Amino acid sequence: xxxxxxxxxxxxxxxxxxxxxxxxxxxxxxxxxxxxxxxxxxxxxxxxxxxxxxxxxxxxxxxxxxxxxxxxxxxxxxxxxxxxxxxxxxxxxxxxxxxxxxxxxxxxxxxxxxxxxxxxxxxxxxxxxxxxxxxxx
Length: 137
Prior knowledge:
This protein is of the alpha+beta class. The protein has helices at residues 31-40, 52-66, and strands spanning 2-3, 21-28, 75-83, 93-106, 109-120, 125-135.
C-alpha cells in the first residue's frame, strides 16, 4: 500500500475542512493474505474472489493509510458500508480515497465524519463507506 505523502505531524481537528479530499492509498489483495483468509474461514477455501469481510479489511487499511499519520487516542465511533457486488481476485489492486464529509464538536468531543470509496484499477466502485471518528486532538 502507498498513501499520498504527508508530513510526519498528525492532522488536528482544526486542520479538517468539510468537503476536502484528504488523500488516497492503493491496496493490493496479495495472494498470501488471501491464503491466510481462506485458512481462517473454511467456507472461503475455494473462493476465487475476496468475500466482503476481506474487502472490508483492505478498505480499512487504505482508509488508515490515505491520510496518515493519525494521532494516538482516536476512537472509531461508527460506520456504514455499501458493497456493489464487485470484488478483487488475488493479485488485484484498488484505490481507497477519503474525503472529510463534516466535523463538529458534540458533548465536548471532536467528531469527524469521513467518506471513503474503494475502486478497482479500472475505476469501478467496489464499496463505499462513511466513518465517524472521535478525533483526539
